[in-house]
Each structure stands twice: as C-alpha cells, then as structure tokens.
Amino acid sequence: FLEKTKGIVIGITGTKGKSTVSSLINHILKESGLKSNLIGNIGTTGIHLLENDNKDNIYVFEMSSFQCEHLKKSPNISVLINVFPDHLNHHKDFKEYRKAKFNITKFQTKNDLFINTSNHKVGTKAKSLSLGGRTSNFETKLQGEHNQTNCLIAYAVAKQFGISENKILKAIKAFNPLPLRLEKVAEKNSAIFYDDSLATIPEATIESIKALENVDTIIIGGLNRNIPLDNFAKYLAKTKIKNFIIFPETGKEMVKYVKGKNIFEVNNMEDAVKTAYKYTDGICLLSNAAASFNLFKNYKDKSDQYRYWINKLS
Questions:
Q1: What is the DSSP letter of 49?
Q2: What are the tens digits of pLDDT across the range 123-135?
Q3: Nearest to 233 by CA among 214, 251, 212, 256
C-alpha cells in the first residue's frame, strides 16, 4: 500500500492510544471536508482503496508493531505515541519490540514529518515536530491526562493541513470515545461499572485509574506475556482501591504488595461481576493490565461477558 499510493499517508503507532489518535485525526480531517480514510490495524488494509487512489486522498494508517516490523517504506507523517513493554510473546524482547515501532520513521526523508511523544529517542531524517505550547486544555469527551496528549497529537497533525484552530477544536469537542476504553456500562445500586477491556498493559490501567480518580473495585489479571509487573504491583498497593478481583495467570503477582484490602481470586467473568456487585460502593473498573486469551477468545469476548453478567444482576 505504501509503495503504490499517490495520497498522503499519516502513520500512527504506539503501545496504547493509536486507535483513539487515528480515529480522532480522521474525524478532524473529514469534518474539515478533506478526503480522509481510516485504515490499517483498526480494521481494513486499505489495499482496495488503491483503485480510486489520487493525490487528494489522505490515509490515516494505524500501525501495530506486527505491521511496523516489516516496513520498507515509511509514511509521509509518522507518529510515535508511546512505547511500553508489550507483545513479548511475539517479539524476542523489549528491544526488538521497540525497534519494530521505530521503523515507522526509519525510511522517512527530510521532506517528511515525525511526531514523537514517547520518552524514547529515535533517529530520523524527517523533520521532527515539537508539540510545545498548547497543553492539557482541550475540551473533549475523552477522559484522562493521556487523552489530552492524544488530542494534542491530533491537533498538531490537523494543523499541517491548514485547518483553522476553531474547526480543529470544534471537531475534538464533538469526537465520541471509542468503545471499550473507559466506557461507562451501567449503574446497579451502589456499583458503577466501567469497561476498559482494551487496557491490556499496566501503563494503560494506571492511566485509567488516574482518570477515574475514585475506583473502589478493580478487575485485573490475565495471560502471562512476560511483561514486567513489579512496578505495577507497587503502584496498586499505594492506591485507595478497596477490592481487587484477580484472574489467572498474572493476577496474584499484580496484588503481591497489597495489604489490608479485599482480594478475590476468580476464574470466570460471572464470579468476577457478582463479587464486584456484592462489595463495590462506587466505581468497579474492568481494566486487566493483561491480555485475556487464557480465559476469553479476545478482548471483545471479555467485554461481552462482562456486560452480559452485569445485565443479569437483579
């Protein structure tokens, strides 16, 4: 696709946030009347769009590490949001995973643009765009400080296309959060259930806890993918969370420093939801900080089961 297209490609990668940033950029561009297409890891390869390709087309391309590791050509505008340990059951180690992500700018030229909001230094021939100035004051439905950074990235990309400040801010304000990312599901008596099924690494769960501020119960744990958990376990021990509902295989390790709180080991979503309902006074957050393939088909299956058992509560 990258070799054949005549249009402008905006490539977005990062361990977390790439779907939100990609969707937000696409939303702003479309709202401003540009011919923008959302493709890549979010659902479609984009190959079929080459039939009607022309230089006026813009392609917002979400790229996973699996796609980035095979790149031989980089996008015109490349974005690296963040890089945390992930997919270490596929990549040999964190260094190899990080190298795959860095490929998004590897083949750029001095005529291209690179936006890097990660804390990693990346060599590039492209022009690096600094995101100084506007910070943390976007009016948006997206919760949390991390989403202010996501808005800032989208704002900076949109500016490259000459879109006015007013149009960009209006589009950001109107943008609806994607499903399964800090999504409020239901209120049942004293329990307010949130679905954060796509938080599959510790850093994502930490941002969600910070965004909601007063989590009473959290459902965590899942497949062991060799991701370091010690710092996450120390963080959880310092929170005001009262109830920890843990899944195998990583749940026990995540709560190893937690003292004087309720810890419930469960092996299925029915028990997790019923336990949460019984003990929660406030917010119950499903945010596993792990993949769930050991108990569920995928994150969608996990979310579906969560909602099913919430709806079954009397």
A1: G
A2: 999 999 877 655 5
A3: 256
